[in-house]
Design the sequence.
């Protein structure tokens, strides 16, 4: 009896969900061979089931995601320098984001209110350098699924040296990191916002400080830790203190609230934080403060400072005049104090734009599938342009926030806490059912609840010189992971994504894919099925691209009949050799990069001079950095020879050039 009850409880708690399918969301997985993720606290609080999520990409035939050095990072070209001022969307690079969410959302869905927020964070990177153990602040996927450590303060008035020691003891350079240790330490130290509605939840108090920090919220009252994510920041948007996330888009409850979201975005307005310093001359900023409001901050000798977010810093402009007068072509520089300042001084920052906002697309309740128009809901992100010309390591985050109208969230605050709470756990209701009461399923920690998914680290790289400023770039990728539909669920089976691209003759397509060698989907299975049915070596993802004459065909065209490879210009390709014959390009795509060209005399990885390609692509890499291609007018259909499995799975796509 006890175990049955335990099981029910587990199922009841592990519900919910938002899953990113393109780019691949991790749902906190790294490289597990199991169907269920092994560490739900690895990086962020998802509130999702343990199933779902995609492993980090691998670069080689036999690697397993257990070394940052051999993991593959998707590489997307940034927009061009003038993309904000050119007509007709010229200069833009597009990444189409696709996700599924469970509870239903959007206009016409009256069952609950909901909003979806997309954000990203980036840091400058050297693509070939994925981090050395001294890089304590670096964004990384890590080599293990273990959560980074956190060593708390042992006394309130610690010294700078004591703080550094804690930091060194905490940060595990083999664990993943998105938010920095420093930002988490700040979250622990800063008093939580006591004006918030916490229903009848009891928020734990930290023993050392005697108060609850911003790590305690209604949704996570105990102060549980998920990577270095700040729970108060996670649960609320727009957040009222600085955070490292840049807003991409808000898919709002209704259009009417978009003005509020756009004006309140940290992209375009500063937020306050209490600045305190280690030294009397106020040059070395303490990275944390316990004060969360002006009065308390100033009373205790701090400065209540407005801090700014930014796309990147521009140290080349060292004065206010140089900074502000550098603005041009839609790139705006501001002279302001960045949110992560170490000395409180102003610097030259590239300003962000307000996020896109519109009402959330409709989705059906209790369903992780298509939206209203027969495709999973999606959003096209116009990738930023970084004026420094440097590559950026980035992660993308989506949060999905479900609320009800059982109380008004905009008016219900701390005055309604505890015994005044409008909601209580699992209440009994009297509906005049012949003297019996009925019990409802309510968890006040989840009545109003945020779900989340994040990608692995990817790269936003500058456009190569061969790509003009005006070219529009569209990313063509592969979504999904190994397994049949029930085994992979709530991740999805393989398919090209976007499945259909409609282009103008001067547009560019960046074909690229990634996969894992450890999608074995074994036990523990969580609440789904184990198994990873598919072709080729167990547990491995592989892809390729060959032309078919019609979407209803499942046999590739013989090379002699293809039009894709003769009607194309290679503007950039990962191996640098753009003077390829159409045969070489076809071979490269069909072999997932295993062959670069046909003839020994033309390249080193030639079909004439290499070991044969495995018929199921087993000896290729699961990731293919790809090429930027410009197709001539026409209609091109393609498929993947390994994964397309007639009646079991369709992995096909179309490019139409008008
Ligand atoms: C979720 O919705 C509630 C109620 O509107 C709001 O207070 C909170 O800030 C939202 N959180 C996020 C992450 O959108
Ligand atoms: C994105 O959603 C729209 C509207 O549902 C749909 O028409 C379009 O095909 C979707 N795009 C992709 C790439 O799935
Ligand atoms: C595809 O078909 C083969 C039989 O040719 C089967 O063994 C395999 O499991 C199928 N793949 C999926 C994912 O269904
Ligand atoms: C290839 O093209 C030739 C010549 O047009 C045609 O006879 C043949 O049927 C085509 N083969 C296929 C498989 O489409
Ligand atoms: C589809 O997959 C099943 C196993 O999942 C397999 O038995 C069957 O042969 C496959 N069908 C085809 C046409 O490959």
Sequence:
């Amino acid at each position: 009896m006890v175990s049955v009850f335990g099981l029910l409880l587990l199922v009841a708690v592990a519900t919910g969900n938002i899953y990113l399918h393109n780019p691949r969301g991790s749902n906190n997985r790294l490289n597990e061979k199991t169907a269920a993720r092994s560490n739900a606290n690895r990086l962020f609080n998802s509130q999702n089931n343990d199933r779902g999520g995609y492993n980090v990409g691998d670069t080689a035939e036999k690697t397993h995601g257990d070394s940052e050095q051999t993991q593959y990072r998707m590489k997307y070209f940034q927009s061009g320098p003038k993309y904000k001022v050119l007509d007709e969307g010229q200069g833009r690079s597009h990444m189409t984001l696709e996700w599924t969410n469970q509870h239903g959302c959007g206009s016409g869905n009256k069952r609950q209110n909901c909003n979806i927020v997309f954000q990203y964070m980036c840091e400058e990177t050297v693509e070939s350098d994925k981090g050395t153990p001294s890089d304590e602040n670096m964004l990384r996927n890590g080599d293990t699924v273990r959560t980074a450590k956190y060593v708390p303060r042992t006394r309130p008035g610690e010294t700078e040296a004591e703080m550094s020691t804690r930091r060194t003891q905490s940060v595990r350079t083999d664990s993943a990191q998105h938010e920095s240790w420093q930002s988490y330490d700040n979250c622990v130290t800063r008093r939580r916002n006591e004006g918030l509605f916490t229903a009848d939840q009891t928020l734990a108090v930290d023993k050392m400080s005697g108060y609850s920090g911003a790590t305690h919220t209604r949704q996570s009252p105990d102060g549980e830790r998920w990577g270095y994510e700040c729970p108060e920041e996670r649960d609320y948007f727009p957040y009222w203190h600085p955070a490292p996330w840049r807003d991409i888009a808000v898919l709002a409850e209704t259009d009417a609230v978009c003005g509020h979201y756009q004006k309140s975005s940290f992209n375009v307005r500063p937020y306050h934080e209490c600045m305190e310093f280690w030294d009397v001359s106020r040059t070395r900023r303490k990275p944390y403060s316990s004060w969360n409001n002006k009065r308390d901050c100033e009373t205790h000798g701090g400065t209540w400072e407005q801090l700014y977010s930014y796309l990147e810093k521009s140290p080349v402009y060292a004065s206010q005049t140089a900074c502000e007068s550098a603005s041009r072509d839609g790139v705006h520089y501001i002279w302001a104090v960045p949110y992560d300042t170490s000395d409180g001084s102003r610097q030259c920052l590239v300003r962000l734009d307000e996020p896109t906002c519109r009402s959330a697309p409709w989705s059906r309740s209790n369903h992780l599938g298509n939206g209203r128009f027969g495709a999973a809901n999606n959003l096209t992100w116009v990738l930023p342009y970084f004026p420094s010309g440097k590559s950026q390591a980035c992660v993308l985050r989506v949060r999905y926030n479900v609320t009800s109208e059982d109380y008004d969230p905009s008016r219900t605050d701390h005055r309604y806490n505890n015994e005044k709470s409008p909601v209580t756990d699992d209440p009994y209701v009297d509906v005049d059912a012949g003297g019996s009461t009925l019990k409802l399923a309510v968890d006040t920690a989840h009545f109003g609840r945020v779900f989340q998914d994040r990608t692995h680290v990817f790269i936003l790289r500058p456009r190569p010189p061969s790509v003009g400023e005006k070219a529009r770039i569209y990313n063509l990728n592969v979504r999904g992971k190994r397994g049949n539909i029930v085994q992979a669920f709530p991740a999805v089976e393989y398919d090209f994504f976007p499945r259909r691209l409609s282009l103008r003759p001067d547009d560019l397509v960046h074909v690229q894919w990634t996969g894992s060698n450890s999608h074995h989907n074994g036990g523990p299975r969580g609440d789904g099925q184990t198994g990873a049915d598919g072709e080729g070596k167990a547990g491995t993802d592989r892809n390729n691209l060959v032309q078919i004459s019609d979407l209803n065909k499942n046999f590739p065209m013989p090379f002699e009949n293809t039009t894709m490879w003769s009607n194309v210009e290679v503007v950039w390709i990962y191996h640098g050799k753009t003077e390829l014959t159409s045969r070489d390009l076809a071979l490269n795509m069909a072999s997932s990069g295993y062959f670069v060209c046909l003839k020994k005399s033309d390249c080193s990885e030639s079909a004439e001079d290499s070991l044969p390609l495995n018929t199921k692509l087993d000896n290729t890499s699961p990731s293919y950095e790809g090429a930027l291609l410009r197709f001539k007018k026409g209609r091109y259909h393609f498929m993947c020879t390994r994964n397309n499995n007639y009646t079991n799975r369709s992995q096909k796509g179309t490019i139409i050039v008008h």
